Every structure is written in C-alpha cells, then in structure tokens.
Amino acid sequence: MALQGIDISNWQKGINLDALAIDFAICKATQGASYVSPDCDRQMQQAMKRGLLVGVYHYVNGAGVDAEAQHFANSIKGYLGKALIVLDWEQGDNAARGNTGYLDSLVAKVKALTGLTPLIYASQSVFPWDIAKKHGCGTWVAQYANNNTTGLQGNPWNEGAYSCDIRQYSSCGRLDGWGGNLDLNKAYMDAAKWQQFAAVGGAAQPAPTPTAPATGVENMDALDLVAGVFRDEYGKDDDRRKALGSRYDEVQKIVNHICSASAETLAQETWAGDYRNGSERKAILAHRYDEVMAIINGNVESGQTYTVKSGDTLSGIAAKFGTTYQKIAAKNGITNPNIIYPGQRLKI
C-alpha cells in the first residue's frame, strides 16, 4: 500500500487542497525559535476537513535545541494526535548543519514535549540514518532525478535504491488545481500506519526499518541500470559485467533490445509504458529516443489520444469517448485498469 501527497509552506499560501487529487498534505508549521508559517493553520484545517492524512513540520535552523523544540511543540498543540510531526534537517539557513549531535538532542527534546516520535526529513546525500535508527524515527528522504516538471509518479525514478517511509522525488511537481511547483512525495504506508505515527504516546515503528542507501546495484530498478549503462557509468565488456554483477544478464538483455529492435517496436513498447516518461524515457532509450519519439508524435497527430488528468479513471475516460475501459487498456498495454497516472497519454 502506498499514498501520494505533497508538502507545502507559505510559498503555497492560499492553495485549495480540495482541488488536488492527493492522499496527504504535510504543512510547514514553524522554523527556528520564533517563525510560524502564516498559512499553516488554514492549510491544516482545510486538509483535515477534507479528510486528508496530515502532518506538520519544523524547519531546523540551529537557534538552540530547547528554544526550537519548545517553539515547535507550543505551536502544534492543536494538531497532536491528528498529524504526524517532522523535523526538517537541511543545509540551507541552518546554523547547526552538519552537527548531527544537535539533531540528536532536538529529536529527544521534541519527543519529550509532544509524546510523538518525529519523522526526519533530509536530502539523501546527508541523511542522518544513525539518528533515525537510534530514536525510531520515520524517514522522509528527498532526492530528485532532475528539475523537470512532473505529475504524481507511481514508481519514482529511485524507487528500490534504498528504504524509507516517505520519498520526495520532485520539487517541480505540477497538479491540476495549483498553478505553481509542488513537492511531490510517495509514502510507503497505509492510513493506519500514518495514524500510528500521529498517535500521541504510541510506539511509532517505522516500516521499513531505516537503512543506509544501497551501495551496489542489487536493489536498483533494471531501467535505472540501463540508463546508467547508456551514460557509460558501468564501463564496457568485462568492466560492465563486474560492475553489474548478478544483474548483468538482465540489464544487458534490455540494452541489447533497445539497440537492435526496430523503432516501431520500441514505439509500441513506449506506448505501453515500458520506458517511463519525460527525461527518464530519454535516458533509457538513449540514442534511439529521437527516432522513437518521432513515430510516437506522428501517431499522436494522426490518431485520437487522451492525456490523463488527476482524478481520472479508465472507465470514466472510456465513457467520454464512447468505448470501454477494456479496449483502452488493451490498446495501451495496461495490465491493471485501476492504475493510471496524471500525464500518461492514452490511445483511444
């Protein structure tokens, strides 16, 4: 089970959460020892009224452990028991950056004041896995493939590279209902697990257990490895075989297919969703990308297509065009008609 959602701050002041097709919203509440996000309570009240799962976060700035913890705890009293809480550990505007001892003490103080075990948010490159493990904190990891705009992703680009409770995969998300960028996240839990994190005095036991990022290739998605091969990250011949280890045959088979298959075959497979979207597709198809997209774009011009929007269902799309969801699924190689994604282009 997984959930899709956003995190917001006063940069998204006035956002109408009723208009977004999301499962959860995590709102910035405080920063340092005195700042309170002006739009936080409005955002939280709207989210809770709608029935979204909610969270609140504190941006750590190194103003002092006791002062920051007390400010955060005092500011979120009304949300305790309803929202999970997060400590946002970043490098910018943080006098304590790099000092994990500060974070260690802050986590302990926040736990003591609120009765909740906070999640820790940080960039993958500096994530304090040891602190999270020590305190039993949930892990919220930020890592982006690029700065291209994207919708919600069922399978983010780095899925499987390491375990975490929430994965922030883009800061350039675009969703129907809001005209600007949004941080997009996938939470690896169901509503019951979310509420467990929010339960005051409850034993929040993150699932999965925090682990450091995998150093090898065993847990990486095959298509990510294929893109790496085309970027020459794994060398050639024996060097590639050694670098990919037990994944070599699987990955090389896909590489060989992309290199040797006809453009028409690759176009059909792309239509079926085999090679993802946007910049990820370009990285996977590599030198074949332009010729494949020329065929796809030609088909778009000559055939009827539909771009999936947030909240769409396959049966609803079928009804609009006077067809059946089974026919659309068959034309697009969709094996599970309950799963479609905003931005996905369907042949009708």
Describe the protein.
With about 350 residues, this protein is of the alpha/beta class. It folds into three domains: about 5-200, TIM Barrel; about 215-295, no CATH class; about 305-345, Roll (Membrane-bound Lytic Murein Transglycosylase D, Chain A). About 35% of the residues lie in helices and about 15% in strands. It has 13 helices and eleven strands. The protein has helices at about 40-50, 65-75, 100-115, 130-135, 190-200, 220-230, 235-245, 250-260, 265-270, 280-285, 290-300, 315-320, 325-330, and strands at about 5-10, 25-30, 35, 55-60, 85-90, 120-125, 140, 165-175, 180-185, 305, 345. Strands 1-2-4-5-6-7-8-9 form an eight-stranded mixed beta barrel. It has a two-stranded antiparallel ribbon with strand order 10-11. α2 runs parallel beside α3 (about 100-115), α6 crosses α10 and α9 (about 265-270) packs across α11. The model is unreliable at about 205-215 (pLDDT under 50).
